[in-house]
């Protein structure tokens, strides 16, 4: 008997988790392994902007093992060994995470992507980028790869509110994101969207509208996390000046559950938390591990008796 109307919803988790989606699709345990290709970002080098997004400090979301000076084959070997031993993973998706991983010449991109795909245990690649940094040539390269291998294009949107995007110095608009999603659709790869909750001036109701927007788009997957300030960022300076009030953990858990209830069951959930090393985390300092927040949100859905997509008509 199916406990939920949508078969994609995991009966214990009450959400469509990306890990279970990969298991359904590939028939084994699959892990994402982060690598650092040494890319930069057009919002930091001056071509789109300088200074970057107000919360950006790439140290906070990059595992220590991934340094651009280390050949990606070595980074992959280290990451795969870790996931094999710790989680029993059999196959891998190589995740180009740091900065903007489509922001280089086509030759450089093709070299990195194909070197990642060369390993027999690698199923495919996941490529993190900005909506305004995906050239037609890069899109064609990913489309070509997706003919035979798994590809996930991860687009950082962060907020659907243009005033917030301007305030956090994202350097792109909602329309640019929408246009890129349409360009990337129908190419046999997954599209993942990154969102953050907790920006200054953002309301819970305003944020929840993003679930309806995602529902209306060909988006396959979501990564959500709380806004947090880390050392050395403009957001941390705003916090010390009293201009940024961090979320309370209860607010975040409740809103994440509200968001999931409004999100269609077909959309897989890759992440519900952003962790930063405590030695550079300024606020909020919840100090949780990713899976602790994951289960806090799952437990909130259980407490409510709800599940992902239950509020959709
Ligand atoms: S787009 Fe990403 S890498 Fe670039 S400044 Fe913003 S958060 Fe940092």
UniProtKB/TrEMBL annotation:
Report whether Iron shows up as a keyword of the record. yes
Q: Which organism is it from?
A: Pelobacter propionicus (strain DSM 2379 / NBRC 103807 / OttBd1)
Q: Which CDD domains match?
A: Radical_SAM
The organism's taxonomy opens as: Bacteria, Pseudomonadati, Thermodesulfobacteriota, Desulfuromonadia, Desulfuromonadales
Q: Which GO terms describe its molecular function?
A: 4 iron, 4 sulfur cluster binding; catalytic activity; metal ion binding
Protein name, UniProt field? Conserved hypothetical radical SAM protein
Q: Which cofactor does it need?
A: [4Fe-4S] cluster
- Please report the stretch or stretches of sequence annotated as the Radical SAM core domain: 20-272
Endpoints of the signal sequence:
none
> Which InterPro entries does the UniProt record give?
ELP3, Elp3/MiaA/NifB-like_rSAM, Radical_SAM_C, rSAM, rSAM_horseshoe, rSAM_sf, YhcC-like
